[in-house]
Design a protein that fits this description.
By secondary structure, this protein is α/β, with parallel strands linked by helices. The protein folds into 2 domains: 157 residues, P-loop containing nucleotide triphosphate hydrolases (Rossmann fold, 3-Layer(aba) Sandwich), CATH 3.40.50.300; 89 residues. It has 11 helices and 9 strands. It has a 5-stranded parallel beta sheet. It has a two-stranded antiparallel ribbon with strand order 3-4. β3 and β4 form a beta hairpin. The longest helix is centred in the last third of the chain and has 19 residues. The radius of gyration is 22 Å and the shape is elongated. Bound molecules: adenosine-5'-triphosphate and magnesium ion. The site of magnesium ion has 4 residues, from α2. Belongs to the CbbQ/NirQ/NorQ/GpvN family. Keywords: ATP-binding, Nucleotide-binding. GO terms for molecular function: ATP binding; ATP hydrolysis activity. InterPro entries: AAA+_ATPase, ATPase_dyneun-rel_AAA, CbbQ/NirQ/NorQ/GpvN, CbbQ_C, ClpA/B, P-loop_NTPase.
Length: 263
């Protein structure tokens, strides 16, 4: 299968992100769920041919999940010894790879300050578990992603946010969306794809008017919807991928109206 890439008619998104990596700046990708943040990071990593380590944040994220942990191993002489297994942050630093920190605003505010030295000009960390001073190799870069305002997220600590340059990643639309649907779903009926794009435009308008929440029609949902549309009527595909995820009856009704209008 051909590897799909992040695309956007606004080329500043991808171009600025690659330029920021060359400048060794930390990038904060900000945008709603399913807007292509992870895809963008993966595409950047492939383009500059630098592998990427990933950390998924949650309230349980602790120093061990970032830096690594001690464990007992049997060495070649059959003796047991305590060794430290490097975690994603230290691996990325030592190997000069990209570190992708997903949902950075889900982590407890006290966990991330251990990364402050890694994230500023020092690019250095003293491993609290071993005392080792780790210096990042050339090529090391940090990309983080946030969905602002979602349940479970916290406002990002200012000192942390201050260390990043922000790139806003919004949902794509129009022909770009059509290309993504063609490349990443099973659907290849041009007529139906253009009606899905039009339907999606109507949803965006309703979002702007405050009638439905922004993530109702994420690109992820639209890809699911397009796949389902190859095996069931479009109305039911929309029901399963968009409408039934909403809890508010008025939002559901607004989308049903848009379905009736477009299909
Ligand atoms: N601009 C885009 N170009 C190519 N693919 C895209 C684009 N936007 C979204 N997609 C596709 O939509 C799906 C969701 O994208 P992705 O997982 O990158 O979203 P995300 O912003 O990381 O979401 P989350 O915040 O939930 O992690 C993927 O299948 C991805 O390939
Ligand atoms: Mg993601």
């Amino acid at each position: 299968m051909v590897k799909t890439q992040y695309i956007n008619s606004d080329e500043t998104i991808f171009n600025d992100a690659s330029a920021l990596l060359r400048l060794n700046k930390n990038i904060l990708l900000k945008g709603p769920t399913g807007s292509g943040k992870t895809k963008l990071a993966e595409t950047l990593s492939e383009t500059i041919e630098t592998p990427m380590y990933q950390v998924n944040c949650s309230v349980d994220l602790d120093a061990e999940s970032l830096l690594g942990f001690k464990t007992i191993q049997t060495n070649s002489e059959g003796q047991q010894e305590i060794v430290f297994i490097d975690g994603p942050v230290i691996k990325a630093m030592k190997e000069g790879h990209i570190l992708y920190i997903d949902e950075i605003n889900m982590a407890k505010p006290e966990t991330l300050p251990i990364l402050n030295g890694v994230l500023d000009y020092r690019r250095k960390l003293t491993n609290p578990f071993t005392g080792e001073v780790v210096k990042a190799e050339p090529g090391f870069n940090v990309i983080a992603a946030i969905n602002e305002g979602y349940i479970g997220t916290l406002p990002m600590n200012e000192a942390l946010k201050n260390r990043f340059v922000v790139i806003q990643v919004d949902y794509i639309d129009g022909d770009t969306l059509g290309n993504v649907i063609k490349e990443q779903s099973q659907l290849d009926d041009d007529n139906l794809i253009s009606r899905i794009i039009k339907f999606n435009e109507d949803l965006r308008t309703m979002t702007k008017q405050g009638q439905i929440s922004e993530e109702a029609a994420s690109i992820r949902a639209l890809i699911d919807l397009s796949d389902l549309a190859t095996i069931m009527p479009i109305e039911r595909a929309i029901q399963r991928t968009i409408i039934d995820k909403l809890e508010d009856e008025r939002e559901q009704q607004a989308i049903i109206n848009a379905v009736e209008l477009n299909f």
